[in-house]
Amino acid sequence: MTALETFEIETAETLVRLAVLLIFVLAVAFFVAVELAIVSSSKGEIDSLARQADRPGTQKAAQRVQHAQNNLGQYLSVTQTGTTAGSLLLGWLGEGATVYWIEPWIMLLPIPHLPVMITVHTIATAIAFLIVTYVEIVLGELVPKVLAAHAPEKTAMALIRPLQICSYLFFPVLVILNATVRLLTGWITNRDRIAEDEFIRKDEYSVLLAGTVDITTVNQQLNLSLPASDAYRTAAGFMIHHMNRVPATGDRLQWGELEFEATRVVENQIETLLLRQVTRPLLEGTLEKTLTASSYD
């Protein structure tokens, strides 16, 4: 093999390594930016854009962002998984590739009294770690966060479609991860959960229900007329949509005679909420027979 052929092979290997590292840096930056953009976007502005029928592209993108904001738990799982996996792969592959480039230069330095190869590899590894960490923090974390915070709505609408594709691709992994989390923490959290279709009576004017219960089920079971919308499907989605944000535990929403209170919010997901109506009992007629009397707190 000639010197020219050797040079061409080494150049090709270098370009491939650089391309792989660039892909992982961009992947981390993507997940960081889209997560911050979705959480920071104004729901009022997104809702307004979602109603612009004269701009189909903008309307569709805004509707996708609406869906993500009303299902934050699902999408944050995707972004966190993507960010963590990308960072780990970047550190693993990036450090090895950087050591490959640095070692020849370190070997040229006069380093006495120590075995040359051990010293070269140790120094190269330390330098590689610092370089990869610096690149990941600056290009993978800080820059995308600054850009996303500057224009969250535009960033969210531009990146939401790729995130949805990633959610489909990551689905098997997320199922395994979520099952593992439930297995490890279920003995603690299960005692605070209620079934999706269960309505728990606090008193005759208030009912505790799961955030995931369908809004039409709430209307049917409690004889209410809460408005339906393409922007939300569940009781939690209704509350998030009309508050224009994800509430914290204890936050309340007044809707006519009704008051919604988020009683349990975990990782930006409303797990349970309390529905009150002070003008008349919520538990009238046959419904009262189907509800579970409870002193749930």
Give descriptors for this structure.
single chain, 297 residues, alpha+beta, Uridine Diphospho-n-acetylenolpyruvylglucosamine Reductase, domain 3, 10 helices, 64% helix, disordered C terminus
What's the structural blueprint in terms of helices and strands?
Blueprint: H1 3-40, H2 43-50, H3 56-70, H4 72-107, H5 116-150, H6 152-169, H7 171-189, E1 199-203, E2 206-210, H8 215-222, H9 235-243, E3 252-255, E4 258-266, E5 269-277, H10 287-290, E6 292-293
Parallel strand pairs: 1-6
Antiparallel strand pairs: 1-2, 2-5, 3-4, 4-5
Helix pairs in contact: 1-4, 1-5, 1-6, 2-3, 3-6, 4-5, 4-6, 5-6
Structure description:
- With 297 residues, the chain is of the alpha+beta class.
- It folds into two domains: 3-180, no CATH class; 193-293, 2-Layer Sandwich (Uridine Diphospho-n-acetylenolpyruvylglucosamine Reductase, domain 3).
- The chain has ten helices and six strands; from the N terminus they run H-H-H-H-H-H-H-E-E-H-H-E-E-E-H-E.
- The chain has helices at residues 3-40, 43-50, 56-70, 72-107, 116-150, 152-169, 171-189, 215-222, 235-243, 287-290; strands spanning 199-203, 206-210, 252-255, 258-266, 269-277, 292-293.
- It has a six-stranded mixed beta sheet with strand order 3-4-5-2-1-6.
- A hairpin with a 2-residue loop joins strand 1 and strand 2 (206-210).
- Helix 1 crosses helix 6 and helix 5 (116-150) packs across helix 6 (152-169).
- The protein is elongated and about 90 Å long.
- Residues 285-297 have low confidence and may be disordered.
